[in-house]
Amino acid sequence: MTDTVADRPRPPDGDWLGTPFLRFDREGPFGIVTLDRPEARNAMTAAMYFGIRYAVTLVEADDDLAGLVITGTGDVFAPGGDLGGGNGVDEWMSFGSALSMEVTPFETLRQSIKPVVSAVNGLCQGGGLQIAMCSDMAVVSDRATFRVPELYRGIADTYYSQMLARIIGPVRTRDLMFTGRTLSAQEAVDWGMVARVVPHHDLATATRDVLARCCRTAPHARSVVKSSLDNYMGLYDRIGMKASYSGPEAVEGFLAFKGRRSPDWVHQELRMDGRL
């Protein structure tokens, strides 16, 4: 009998993460979450964000699992939220409101009891880069690229400005956020954004080796160190970021993205064909 999505158990039962675009596999002591939406280049729906959050808690509660790997399919890890669906302002307002801290996995990743390692197999930006940064470790393919395009979408992402400034410093944070430049894997490791870059064909093996090493450390002592590091990262401006999501620039950024054009805040002489 063919297994269908409808036949699978729903949370909190089994390994079904609530969306067909996430796969959860068990490999010995590890849970493996794979973003699997190639037709949309792994663009993340609200359900996908929540599914990753749920996967962390699933692994935490399962004595048979020691840690979690998050990865993507093809040449994309995760490009962030899906801005291509819908057809207007109402769609943005509903999507933007869905990306609250009650849905997104970032805080859950930062607080995870068991180790989480992101295997960054390709393009990584927006919410995808936040997932990699909030994981305990990120192992990166030499084909991976990184970008923070939120300001081109009219979003004041204070989570990025807080975390990146702590990780790579304010000067490089301005470079990434104000220019929207694409960073190569080697640049990311040189800047201290990620810990290690490996040849693409070694990514799966290297990621599992890193996770195994993390899982061999003493859990309570590790949690104390993790708490200390989390305190160093600090809190971001939640109120300001929420206000930005519901503001006119975010709406225009969404409509411009959908229309494959420059937003109307860009000077006429600086507008470009296609999306920024």
Structural description of this entry:
This protein has 11 helices and 10 strands. With 276 residues, it is of the alpha/beta class. The chain has one domain (5-260): 2-enoyl-CoA Hydratase, Chain A, domain 1, CATH 3.90.226.10. The protein is globular.
What's a quick, concise take on this entry?
42% of the residues lie in helices and 15% in strands. The protein has 276 residues and is of the alpha/beta class.
Helix-strand blueprint:
Elements: E1 22-27, E2 30-35, H1 46-60, E3 67-72, E4 76-78, H2 89-98, H3 106-111, E5 116-120, E6 123-125, H4 127-134, E7 137-141, E8 145-147, H5 158-168, H6 170-179, E9 183-184, H7 185-191, E10 196-198, H8 203-215, H9 219-233, H10 238-245, H11 248-259
Parallel strand pairs: 2-3, 3-5, 4-6, 5-7, 6-8, 7-10
Antiparallel strand pairs: 1-2, 8-9
Helix pairs in contact: 5-6
Top CATH class:
Alpha Beta
Largest sheet: 6 strands, mixed
pLDDT averaged residue by residue: 90
H/I helix tally: 11
Parts with pLDDT < 50 across at least 5 consecutive residues: none
Q: Provide the succession of SSEs.
A: EEHEEHHEEHEEHHEHEHHHH
Keywords:
about 40% helix, alpha/beta, about 280 residues, globular
